[in-house]
Design goal:
The complex is a heterodimer.
Chain A lengths: L24 H36 L1 H8 L4 H26 L3 H31 L18 H34 L9 H26 L1
Helix pairs in contact in A: 1-2, 1-5, 1-6, 2-5, 3-4, 3-6, 4-5, 5-6
Chain B lengths: L16 H4 L13 H5 L4 H29 L10 H36 L8 H23 L13 H4 L4 H28 L12 H33 L12 H35 L6 H14 L15 H29 L8 H24 L1 H7 L3 H31 L5 H28 L13 H31 L53
Amino acid sequence: MQSSSVAGTPGAPHVPHVAAHFASREVQDHAARLGMWLFLATEILLFAGLFVCYANYRFAFPDAFAAASRELDLTMGTINTLVLITSSFTAAMAVHYAKEGQNKQVVWMFVLTILMALGFLVIKYFEYSHKFHVHQLPGPYYAYDKIQLPGVSMYFTIYFLSTGLHAFHVIIGMIVLGWVTLKAMRNEFNHSNYTAVELGSMYWHLVDLVWIFLFPMLYLI
Amino acid sequence: MSPSSSIAAEPGAVPAPDEHHEHHPSYLVDGTTVKSWLLTLDHKRIGVMYLIWVLLFFLIGGIYALIVRLELLTPGPTIIDAMTYNRAFTMHGVVMIFLFMIPAIPGAFGNFMLPLMLGAKDVAFPKLNLMSLYLLLSGAVIAIWGMINGGMDTGWTFYTPYSTHTTTTVAPILFGAFIIGFSSIATGLNFIVTTHTMRAPGITWFKMPLFVWAMYATACIQVLATPVLGLVLLLVVGENIFHFGIFDPARGGDPVLFQHLFWFYSHPAVYIMVLPAFGVMSEVVATYSRKNIFGYRAVAFSSLGIAFVGFFAWGHHMFVSGQSTFNAGVFAVLTMLVGVFTAIKVFNWVGTVYKGAVDFKTPFAYFCGFLYFTVFGGMTGVAFATASLDVPWHDTYFVVAHFHFIMVGATIMAFMAALHYWFPKMFGKTYHEGWGLVSAALIILGFNATFIPQFLLGNAGMPRRYYEYPERFQTLNVASTAGASLLAFGFIIAAVYLTYALVYGERASANPWHSRGYEWLTESPPPTHNFVGPQPTYTEEPHFYVEPEKAEVPDAV
């Protein structure tokens, strides 16, 4: 049995940053982390559907997929991969600084992360606009003269759907990190209260992780 | 009684409501403004709001069902034209599955009971909980907007390539279902985290009530399967608007891929609907048999077993899709495993009733109906899992009758049982037992009269979803429609006496059924923070009843 601060006991003393229905900060942090892990699992499963589509149509149209994937700009893709991996590093460093209560450093690390996210989107924009220019587009909008294999438009359908969904997650991630940065600017984090930094960073690692799968799938093989 | 039993079921163990009334008003009267309900973070109020909405959706889905049944009264056109008929059965399926059966028990009773059963003040994420209710409602509004502005004629399975080409309003309805999926994920996520982190001291994993185990297994499916449905619905919406061709054979797309992705969710979704029902019934059968549940661990693990195996059974929906014989065999065997886990539960429930001191109240009547529907519906499910039998029955009324027996029969029985069993706890009022039994009898009879003819129709070869049929099928169709009317009548009676009880019912005691469930350790209705005074201690199992021959069985209140 535990002391009076157990969940469900009226009159338990109020602890700052702990919601009334939680027994303690440890429980609250455990709940928040577990919730985030589960949420990230659902995100991976969301992308998994697109991976299944890719696998299915790559099996159906191997030549078209091989030819179309060579049309992607490998240099830009590689730079973007490096940018995202570096941004994941700065996000991880933010957690490290938050644990030490160095809110200023947390702000810097997240500002760097968000800038790199922006850089990723800019590079993506150049890639997309080139594809639009030469009409390497999904489904009925595909009108690229040099490759006319059956199923080639399917490759670009999956390319735009999966990178588009990923870019959408990049934007969400920037908003999440921006919100945590504001909290860090208000000096909110210390050695016992840094869950928001940790969760925001976890979300950013997911965005990174999905790209780590998308990059070889679309650009390399 | 043993000394330790003083913790639990005895009415005297709970402070009389009036003593604390001023300091701890019940959750129903703690704040009476509309805003205090609409913006509440209290899991009990959210549960009640869920209950109100799912009952409304049940009514809408039921009206569509009656329209479909009335249309099939005669072989030719009866009351509506063919296109309206297509829209009616589609909307019957969409509303009943996405807006009633999936959210009903977890949303209404899971939200209300799960924290009470874990001795917690609330679920882990109260704001997320409220958000999941509003996600459900916004999804419902978008879908119903689509229904009014054109409707959809694809059937609730949205099979491609038809759904990507039909000119009816597919996009808003599928987008509504996509949002409803988010609501389902949020509820499941919340329940998993609550079960992991919010258990009161003393409630170990194997002291959790079986309803909690069932909700936990359900939540695992909700979290792991729904995102895939979300993606595939988005793909169909995109396909319907932009014609990308991802499921369109004319552009090299693969409609069977849609079926794989769709059933990867929608087969486990069957267990999202029926596992909560199993959980409710485990509580009900122990309470009204006045016996500890037989094989607690087996019942708990079989919930997880069903959740696990349920993910590997989707291929049985595709026996006629050109799947290889080997695949069909694998999926057949995996599907039958679900029957093994369900049988574990059924035998344990029967073992619980055996030599119990049965108190034949309305929820127990629904338990009897439930047992029958589960065994009958489940056995036809095993028959369907046999690929060679599935082929002639495929897309006939035999399928319709089978899934209505197991999914709807079992779920409705459990929903009605839960509504009656927890009615005193939720609203602090008692209902009329006699009318409860009459309505239960009518509903069970009506259900049989509706769907047994459909088994016969399907076996005779009548396909599902057809607007017209040969005259030789008419007698059975008339019987089925008559049964549906009886069923509707049973529900109307229940609606009337329950509404009456809500207003004029006698005040219920804290534990009118003398149950040993943890949720009865607090007042009826519970105060806002669930418990008054010191936290209850949990030293015994949640279904701990003294052997009937040793116990004095108290009279029902």
